[in-house]
Design goal:
By secondary structure, the protein is mainly alpha-helical. The protein contains four helices and no strands.
C-alpha cells in the first residue's frame, strides 16, 4: 500500500492563527452567562433561606455574601444578568428579521458587551 503524503501544515485553522468573530464570542458568552447565573441565584436563595432559618445561620450566610468573594460573585452575577438580558433582546431583534447583516450584528454584539459593563457599573453605584 502506498504511503500517504502528509502536508507540513495544519489541516484546519487553530486559535493561534484564527480569531473568533465577535458574533461567535457573543453567542458563547450568552450560553456561559445563562449557566453562570445559577451560581448567583443559589447564593441569594441560600441567603434568603438562612434569613428564614434563624439569626445564627443568617450571620454565616450574610458573612459569606458580604465577603470579598461574595461581592465578586454578586458583581459578576449582575454583569451576567445585564449581559444575558441585552443578548436576549438582540436575539429577539434578529428573530424579527432585523439587523441580520454582518456589520449590524457585530455592532449589536459589541453594544451588548459595552452595555452590560455600563449597566453593571450603574447597578453597583446605585445599589
Amino acid at each position: 500500500m502506498p504511503e500517504a503524503r502528509r502536508a507540513g501544515r495544519p489541516l484546519s485553522p487553530h486559535l493561534q492563527i484564527y480569531r473568533l468573530p465577535i458574533t461567535a464570542i457573543v453567542s458563547i458568552l450568552t450560553r456561559i452567562t445563562g449557566n453562570g447565573l445559577i451560581v448567583g441565584v443559589v447564593l441569594v436563595v441560600w441567603w434568603l433561606l438562612a434569613a428564614a432559618t434563624g439569626p445564627g445561620y443568617f450571620a454565616l450566610a450574610d458573612g459569606v455574601l458580604r465577603s470579598w468573594l461574595g461581592d465578586l460573585v454578586l458583581a459578576a452575577s449582575a454583569w451576567a444578568l445585564w449581559y444575558h438580558l441585552l443578548a436576549g433582546l438582540r436575539h429577539m431583534w434578529f428573530d424579527a428579521g432585523h439587523g441580520l447583516d454582518l456589520a449590524t450584528a457585530e455592532r449589536l454584539g459589541i453594544g451588548c458587551l459595552v452595555g452590560a459593563f455600563v449597566l453593571t457599573g450603574l447597578t453597583i453605584v446605585l445599589v
